[in-house]
Amino acid sequence: MGRWWSPPEPRSVQLLLLGVAFVAASFYAGTLFQSSASPAVVLPPSGSRSPDSSNPQVADDAEFTNRVAVTYRTTPISVPDYGLDVCPLEYNEYVPCHDAAYVSSLRNLDRSRHEDLEHICPPREKRLFCLVPPPNDYKIPIRWPMSRDYVWRSNVNHSHLSEVKGGQNWVHESGKLWWFPGGGTHFKHGASEYIERLGNMTTNSTGDLSSAGVVQVLDVGCGVASFSAYLLPLDIHTMSFAPKDGHENQIQFALERGIGAMISVLATKQLPYPGNSFEMVHCSRCRVDWLENDGILLKEVDRLLRPNGYFVYSAPPAYRKDKDFPIIWEKLINITTAMCWKLIAKHVQTAIWIKPEDESCRQKNADMKLLNICNPDDSSLPSWKSPLMNCVWLNTDQSKLQKLPPRPDRLLFYSRSLERIGVIPEKFENNNQFWQDQVRKYWSLLGVEKTNIRNVMDMNANYGGFAMALSTDPVWIMNVVPHTMINTLPIIYDRGLIGSYHDWLVFFFWKSRHPFPCLDESKTHPCCRCQPFSTYPRTYDLLHAFHLFSHYQGRVEGCSLEDILLEIDRIIRPQGFIIIRDENTTLSRISDLAPKFLWDVSTRTLENEENRPEQVLICRKKFWAII
């Protein structure tokens, strides 16, 4: 999102050396990379609590009282006066709901369908309740746009991808840096060349992907997200996802680069995005079994594609004639033909289908029992932890379909998705003006250069006005819509923005077959559990929580304000900002707790949408480390 400046693509060893020299010069000059800073607060390891006069950093912070200890969530919740414990260093990449150690203990998951890679949260007593530390030698991330090509090696210190994917130009080691040449499994010579080829294939060589009508892309099994990064010059915005699996830390690399991505997988549940939201779904050797269960995963792609949307498939069955690839291709053709997708291009290693706008073919195939049609009543429900459905939705109500303008006009366009939830044009316009004004004031309150912030999350995004107001700044925004609130995520996608359903607090009734039962096993009382987001620690520079906490306050026991603050601390980067607006009593509690989380906090006053004064908390996470 925002203005794009594209650094020259490294195409030779000489240019690589020049780039590394520039990196080194910038590092020692302390300019572009802003990363030579040391932690402001240094915490001795467990068992060494007395200040060491030989270490000035420790001595200067003798008032620092948090301790290093493995601590788990207790009931009732309690935050010690000395502050939250800090998890030991080995937990520096802790992702609560993608914890392989916990998931491996579960016996009733369908691993053949990769259910074990889905978002599965442990019960409270098995969840860490301590601050996740940064790794050794962590540095403040390199600024965008240079971060597209270079990140600090110590921040994501994993060499597996460079070893197994270096020949495909995913990532290479370069001294203290990781270098991303822009390659991928099916575009090792660079994403730009590959994207140009896709543009030719979708326009019969008359244009590019933008002129083909592509605004939003879903990249399945995205790797380190170079495809997404090189779509930005076309003002095409991508939701990239991949599982936390054997391709070690691919999403962590993507987010460290400043590219929008999240941990997710096509397995047994719908993806957390609304239907009819993407003009393109992309799979480049994405390791998905599209033939599984009569093509149920392709039907999920169909749900997500807009009419006339493209499915791009770059994989061996599209071009190889050996082994079982021709059989796989024939079955793929049978499934896509039943859904009335049209194969519009097949070139080199890639095939592209287009989803029909006219539903007559699909209705005919359904009458012939070649296709199952979904219940239209289910289409308006948020796709949050919903099981996959082996059917397709028909867009039979043409009044709900609408041709959307291209970006940037789409950002301010009054769509029918707004009309369906009762938002009149005047209210929408006023909301846009409100957020444009608030964002100007936010930048003034933060007091940093705009290039200091790249990865942003709006934890309660509503219509996406906050993200719209940031659209000309060098940031991207993950717009989160809690699934217990009004379903506004279709509005956000209709504006050309990206985001995800989530619930910071989930409710369910205990059932004996549930793989993670509530501590209260009563069948007459609801259970509740906090739901951490599917991302790595230290992946966002700014979190925006607009009346989020009051939505959950006092609903049922099991998830507290402290739990959500701990998750905020996990995913915010050192020196990152948290902007919180809520009820005054909630803000007062957060203000009291913030120092125990090692946050600086200040209170400011802005006006709300009714032009009344409203308190705003500006919190900033300290840069601390265990030594």
Give a structural overview:
The chain has 627 residues and is α/β, with parallel strands linked by helices. It is built from 17 helices and 21 strands. The strands form 5 sheets. A 7-stranded mixed sheet has the order 7-6-5-8-9-11-10. Strands 14-13-12-17-18-20-19 form a 7-stranded mixed sheet, with helices on both faces. It has a 3-stranded antiparallel sheet with strand order 2-4-3, with no helix packed on it. The radius of gyration is 24 Å and the shape is globular. Mean pLDDT is 87; it is low at 2-31, 47-62 and 508-526.
What's the arrangement of strands in the largest beta sheet?
A: 7-6-5-8-9-11-10
Q: Main β-sheet, in a few words?
A: 7 strands, mixed
What overall geometry do the principal axes of the alpha carbons give? globular
* Annotation field: number of helices: 17
Helix content: 10-25%
Which structural class fits the helix and strand makeup?
alpha/beta
Mean pLDDT: 87
Binned strand content: 15-25%
Calculate the terminal CA-CA distance, rounded to whole Å. Answer: 37 Å
Given as residue ranges, the uncertain stretches (5+ residues, pLDDT < 50) are 2-31, 47-62, 508-526
Radius of gyration: 24 Å
Total beta-strand segments: 21
